[in-house]
Amino acid sequence: MALRILRPLCSFRIAHSRAPCLSRAFSLHRCLSTAKSTGDDNASARALQSLGKSPKQQIRNFTEEALLHLRKTVLDRSFASPYHSLAKLPKARLEQLVEEFETTFSEKCSAYYENPSSHSLQLRDISLAEYFRPHLDAAPPIILSVYLNMYPTDLAEHRGYKNKTEIATAILTELFHQHCIGDLLHSLPEQEKIDTNWDIGNPAEWFPQARKMKRKIIMHVGPTNSGKTHNSLKAFAAAKSGYYAGPLRLLAREIYERFEGQGIHCNLITGEEVVPSLDEYGSVSNLSSGTIEMIPLHKKMDICIIDEIQMLADPTRGSAWTNAVLGVQAKEVHLCGEESAVALVKEMVKSTGDELVIKQYKRLGKLTMCQKPVGRLENLQKGDCLIAFSKRKILELKCRIEQSTSLKVGVIYGALPPEIRSQASAKFNSGEYDVLVASDAIGMGLNLKIKRIVFWSIMKFNGSDMVPLSVSATKQIAGRAGRFSADQGESEGLVTAFKSKDLRFLQLAMREPIKNVEKACIWPPSEFWVHYVSSFRSPLPLSEAVKKFEKSIGNRKLDNYFLSEFDHQLEILDLLLRNRLSKSLTIEDQLSLASVPLNLHFAPPVVVETALKFFECISRCESKTVFDFDFLHSSILSMEPSITGSSERVFDTLQALETNHKLVLVFMWLSQRWPTLFADKESANDIKTLIEKRISEELICLRRVAKKEKSGRRRR
User: What is the pTM of this model?
Assistant: First the structure.
């Protein structure tokens, strides 16, 4: 039924014993009509005063009556359409939810009636949209407008309301339904979902196409250097189609280069770049090596290798592993990693109905725990890898070792570009570098010929505190010593520490069994969020929707699963909201930007400012090149490395280059998703290569500067 020109409710005869007299309604309309013509911000307060004696008590009585009707509906579980799904929630939980709702609503009403003119929604501004899609913040003036006979007559007739209490109860029921939406998405069985298959407690059902398959899942589990990944890659090489999913770009590139070197066509797919491999007929290979986040869950394939499977318990990235295990459409799924993940995967497979085969491996070569600490830098030997956990400390140790010994030192740490880490690895393996100083970045990937792992420290910053290494991380790093090679066979690896107290910690940790991972990390994919945000009757920013979701689900017990940490992504979503960019971006675009490889919390100002410029480019649909964003240090990029400065100068230059490299990678990451907006990707790739060259030059220069500083101290 098409709505006619809407009339105020004062012309609609309603049967309500407490309805204010017609003259009072006319007085109200005079107040509001005057306000509309003059822009009077005090009209809401004057309208409230026009009710006569005790206006706040009148509206409070009216509101309480509507809340009583709502509570009765909840207790009787007599919800009408479209709210019948609320009856599926447990009675005790419903009662708890209605109490929460009443408390929140009453608090908002009390604040509103203290100073109605300060509210963001004035009575004169209430539109039809507010009645169709009310939201809790706007509820007090909306309920007041109902009491003051402002609800449109035609809408009341259309919906069959007999009096104002029914109207207010209907509005409160809608608001209560919004309050319960998180519980509904978590608790209801699949057939009760609202146009979705999103049962938060059963993520296996998020992937219906994979559930139509009878997959064979083969777990290859064992310690570091046991050959588990090597054996799965044999099956991968023989397959017609497949995907190797690794935790790092570096590892994905290593597998890609290995296969290409063997004459097996294999594509490289990471967030920043896609390198297709073409056969002699120009056809793109059906085998790909890439990062876990880029795995094509929509594509059918013969085989998929998911490396470092224990990462599914990682609180920040683990959901990518969980989604891959549950959702990849591969006939064979090979899971490689620690034995600690076996029990959890068994539970997950129960919900998927797949076949599970477990293959256990033993370490190839002996790993020996040394009985004495190294004690002095002069006691380091060729083939050693010294482990430290901050970039500053790693660079300082490189200088100190080269000052106090004749050893040539390479460095590997997380902020270094993967290409530079790969170069350092190759130079160490060839003997060009005698010693490595590295972070836990060596724990995954990088086939290194390390004879002895030496822990400079066992304490690591976790983002807020200095904490000891976990048993799992300790064994992962220690296991890099004595790597097996096809040419030389097994080799013994040694593990020790620089200090005595750390050696005792290592000895205990190496004897400890690795604890089973108990739960897998989950986070709903973008399709869920499109539905979830649209389920609210009033527009809600994505960042607020995420917070509501976390609040409603966070304290629930999820068998075998836990919700991912989303703090870094929320920082990006909040940045979009603060700068009014979210309104011009789709939910999908916002979710993509939330996944950009940046941690704004620890980022320097130039990174945050440049990221915002990137996001504005998308919001405004402006096409730009990497040179249009003014973050490149042209003077540093064009300068020649010099040994005339200090090691501190080299540290600062490296920091600037690494920041530039990170932002260029973000540009390339965005160009993969918005290729028409982030244009001239070839130039960005050239800049990336130039920055990597400059980083290599500065690291070489650091050795010369360290030697110069050493000789300078001797002369003094």
Answer: 0.70
